[in-house]
Write a structure and sequence with these properties.
It is built from ten helices and 14 strands. With 317 residues, it is of the alpha+beta class. A hairpin with a 4-residue loop joins strand 9 and strand 10. It has two domains: 247 residues, Hsp33 domain (3-Layer(bab) Sandwich); 52 residues, CBS domain Like (Alpha-Beta Complex), CATH 3.90.1280. One of its GO terms (biological process) is protein refolding.
Length: 317
């Protein structure tokens, strides 16, 4: 295995690995999320089935955003009419992310590896690219397949015409992902490729598919990523080209929540204090990180009088 990496341990968790294969005809991205994934779910009570789906979506979104050459964010969204109605991952080009999910009480949450057709029902996969500068792009396709990886591979076939193989695994403690993709033709246009490139991609996909057996899944979920990559591709001219840290970052703040509340006006804020679950308070919970922000009557008056939020921080985690 050739390496061209920063001088630090490649065994550190919460990292993303970019690599090349088959003399540049195939590219790959692998990601391992441990502490950051636990932090993302720390203040949420995700049922095991939701944690599994959402963790797979996070791993997929991080591998996908790493293939893009832009500054901005990628938003991966699954929306359905089944017991899981929404999964959203916002992945930024700096390899930070945040997540949210919605589900109903009818979900059999302790049963893992359920088909996404069962969990989402009729639904839609949306992929949105929001560059800091430039035009926003969104693609919508029906949710197809039985697993998150199959649905995303279908998206690449339909919308990008780019042969892609994804292997994803997650639980409440760890999320991992592997993406293998043919390198686009010159100019990024889809795809006039030599048969040799197709053969290389198929061969490497077969190697990645060994992670889909029961033994392979267990190994993928429990083994550090450099070991996994070496086992799969050490005979295929694997070159690790970049190692990057990944982190969970929400970005919400008391000041931001206060600005949102101030825009509602006095009448709505008074009604919220009167009719909310916590009488006398306006309470807001961040759907991404789970932080709770509470504003009492004095805080509300200060919001309405001032241009910024100045009361002491009463955030509760």
């Amino acid at each position: 295995m050739s390496e061209s990496l920063p001088e630090r341990s490649i065994l550190t968790a919460d990292q993303l690995y970019r690599f090349g294969l088959a003399t540049g005809k195939v590219r790959g991205v692998a990601v391992s999320l441990d502490e950051s994934w636990r932090a993302a779910g720390e203040h949420h009570d995700y049922p095991p089935a939701v944690a599994q789906l959402l963790g797979q979506c996070v791993a997929a979104a991080m591998t996908m955003v790493a293939t893009l050459k832009f500054d901005g964010r990628l938003i991966l969204q699954f929306r359905g009419e089944g017991p899981v109605s929404l999964l959203v991952v916002q992945a930024r080009s700096d390899l930070s992310y945040r997540v949210t999910a919605q589900w109903s009480e009818s979900l059999v949450g302790d049963v893992l590896d359920q088909s996404i057709q069962t969990l989402f029902g009729a639904g839609q996969l949306a992929l949105t690219i929001e560059p800091d500068e430039g035009v926003r792009y969104q693609s919508l396709v029906p949710i197809e397949g039985t697993q998150i990886a199959e649905a995303l591979e279908g998206y690449f076939r339909q919308s990008e015409q780019l042969p892609t193989r994804l292997v994803l695994s997650a639980d409440s403690e760890r999320a991992v992902g592997l993406l293998i993709q043919q390198v686009p033709g010159e100019g990024g246009t889809p795809m006039v490729r030599a048969s040799a490139a197709d053969a290389d991609f198929e061969h490497l996909s077969i190697m990645a598919d060994t992670l889909l057996t029961p033994q392979g899944r267990a190994e993928f979920q429990s083994t550090d990523m450099p070991t996994i990559l070496h086992r799969l591709f050490h005979q295929d001219a694997l070159v690790l080209t970049q190692l990057s840290d990944v982190r969970f970052f929400c970005g919400c703040s008391r000041a931001g929540v206060g600005a949102m509340l101030r825009s509602l006006g006095r009448e709505e804020l008074n009604a919220a204090q009167r009719d909310g679950d916590e009488k006398g308070y306006v309470a807001v919970r961040c759907e991404f990180c789970g932080a709770n922000y509470r504003f009492d009557a004095v805080d509300v008056e200060q919001l309405l009088l001032d241009d910024s939020v100045s009361p002491p921080d009463s955030t509760r985690h």
